[in-house]
Amino acid sequence: MKKQMVILALCLMGAVGAPPLAAQVSEQSAPPQPTREEIQKNRQQIVLANVELNDTEKKAFLPVYEKYQTGVYSLEERLEKTIEEYAKFYNSDSLTDKKAGELLDTSLSIRKAKLELLNSYVAQLKKILPLKKVARIAQVENKMDAIVNYYLAAVIPLAK
């Protein structure tokens, strides 16, 4: 699993707009940015590699997971726009208290929406899979999100 998480980290480093911000803010060279479809496919492959599902479970799981990923994609688009907006203000040294508050509220709203989406997804999975497998899927998703969040924390500078 560790190897798969490293691969995911490399694939997801470009997710949700981080490399453009890194380039704008610190002029670091970033790895090539994978497409969202590649990211979704990699996430799905990692989940499937870490959770043993029989054919019946897999058939029930995949449509639910794909719907969940569609919702995540929408939230990532919102987050990307928020990060890009923050980068614009950060790079021009023009972040006001009002704009900082708006960006913070937007960021928290996205986090809340993602948690609500995850709760809905887990509730659906509980109806079709054994609870140990649902817990494991949630753990794998959490680890993948932690990798993305770690990268974002590393490349997004603190407000000034």
From TrEMBL:
Keywords (A to Z) from UniProt: Signal
Signal peptide (UniProt feature, chain positions): 1-23
Domain of life: Bacteria
Keyword Signal: yes
UniProt name for this protein: Photosystem II protein PsbQ
